[in-house]
Design brief:
It is built from 16 helices and no strands. The chain is an all-alpha fold. Helix 4 runs parallel beside helix 6 and helix 7 packs across helix 10. It is globular.
Length: 322
C-alpha cells in the first residue's frame, strides 16, 4: 500500500509536466539535435550540442516512436525514468536493511529530486544519468560472496551509460570501484584481496568495454573526433559564476536540510544502524562527496546540477527516517 501511495505521489507531483504542451528548459535544444538524428542526421556534424551522444539517441528514440517534438511522450518517459530510479533506490535500501528503508529512500528521491524549481522536472541529463548510476550501485551492493561476479560487468556498463548521458556521471564510478577494494567489503563477504581485485576489474572492464563499443559506433558514423571535441574537450571555463554557486548551494542546503542532517548522522554512525554496513556507508559518503564535486564542474551552476546529489542523500538518511 505504501509503495502504491509513493507512486501516486510521484505521478501527482509530475502531472504538470504531462500537461505541459511545450519543452521545459534544456529539452528544447536537445530535441533539435534529436530530431535531426530522426531525420537521418548526425549529432556534432549536422546539429551541435555539447552533451554526450546517448542523450540525443535517447531523445531520438522517443521521437522516433511517438512522433517529432511529442512533448507528452517525452515527459511521460521522464516520469517513468524517475520511477525507475526510485525502484533502484528501493532495491538498494531493501538489500542493505529492509523493505521499509527501501520505500523511504524511494520516497525521499521522489520528494527532493525537483528540489529547486519546476524546471528540475525537465528530462535533463542529471535526471537521465541517475537511473543507470543507481542501478549500477544496486548491482554492486548485492550480497554475494562468489569469487566471480559477472554482474559487475553490467554495473560497469551502466556507469558508462550514465557517462554517455551526462559527463559528470563518470565520477560515480570511482567510489563504487573503491567500495569493491575496501577491507570492510572483503571482510563482510569473506573474500580475499585477490578476489576483490577481480571484482573491481570486472567493473572496470564493463565500463571501458561499453565505452569502446560506443566509440566504434561513432567512428562508423564518422563523428568520433567531433563527439570527443564537443562533449569532452570543448568545456573550457572562461569564468566561474561564484555568486550563482553560493546562492544555489545555500538554497539547496535550506530546501534539502532533512537529507543533509540524515547524511550527517550517518557519518559517525559506527555502532548504530550502519554498524554492519560500514563498507556501504563509506561508499555512499564517498559518492556524495564525488557528486558534490561533479555538480558544479561546468562552472555555470544551475539548480538541475544538484540533482545528482539526491540518490546518496536519499539512501544515507533512509534507515534513520525509517
Amino acid at each position: 500500500m505504501m509503495a502504491l501511495a509513493i507512486v501516486m505521489l510521484t505521478i501527482a507531483t509530475r502531472l504538470p509536466t504531462l500537461l505541459q504542451p511545450a519543452p521545459i528548459d534544456d529539452e528544447a535544444v536537445y530535441s533539435v539535435v534529436a530530431n535531426e538524428v530522426v531525420d537521418g542526421g548526425r549529432p556534432y556534424a549536422d546539429a551541435v550540442e555539447r552533451k554526450p551522444p546517448l542523450l540525443f539517441w535517447t531523445y531520438a528514440a522517443v521521437f522516433e516512436v511517438a512522433g517529432k517534438y511529442n512533448w507528452l511522450a517525452l515527459h511521460a518517459v521522464g516520469l517513468l525514468w524517475v520511477l525507475g530510479t526510485m525502484a533502484g533506490l528501493y532495491v538498494i535500501g531493501r538489500e542493505m536493511f529492509d523493505r521499509q528503508t527501501g520505500l523511504v529512500a524511494a520516497l525521499l528521491y521522489s520528494v527532493f529530486q525537483p528540489w529547486g524549481t519546476w524546471k528540475d522536472l525537465a528530462f535533463n541529463g542529471e535526471m537521465l544519468m541517475n537511473l543507470p548510476i543507481v542501478w549500477a550501485w544496486a548491482i554492486g551492493f548485492k550480497r554475494s560472496s562468489a569469487p566471480l561476479r559477472p554482474e559487475l560487468l553490467l554495473a560497469g556498463a551502466l556507469l558508462c551509460v550514465g557517462f554517455l548521458l551526462k559527463q559528470p556521471a563518470a565520477i560515480a564510478a570511482v567510489p563504487l570501484g573503491l567500495y569493491l577494494l575496501l577491507p570492510s567489503y572483503r571482510i563482510s563477504r569473506g573474500l580475499t584481496w585477490k578476489t576483490a581485485l577481480v571484482h573491481a576489474a570486472a567493473l572496470t572492464a564493463g565500463f571501458f568495454g561499453s565505452l569502446s563499443v560506443v566509440a566504434l559506433v561513432l567512428r562508423e558514423q564518422g563523428i568520433l573526433a567531433d563527439a570527443f571535441y564537443w562533449s569532452v574537450t570543448n568545456h573550457s571555463i572562461p569564468h566561474i559564476f561564484w555568486d550563482r554557486g553560493v546562492r544555489f548551494t545555500l538554497l539547496f542546503v535550506g530546501e534539502c536540510l532533512p537529507l543533509l542532517i540524515g547524511a550527517a548522522l550517518a557519518y559517525p554512525d559506527r555502532r548504530g544502524v550502519w554498524a554492519e554496513k560500514q563498507a556501504e556507508r563509506t561508499a555512499l559518503l564517498c559518492l556524495l562527496v564525488a557528486s558534490a564535486i561533479g555538480a558544479p564542474v561546468g562552472a555555470l551552476v544551475y539548480p538541475h546540477d544538484y540533482i545528482q546529489l539526491i540518490p546518496p542523500l536519499a539512501l544515507l538518511p533512509a534507515p534513520f527516517f525509517t
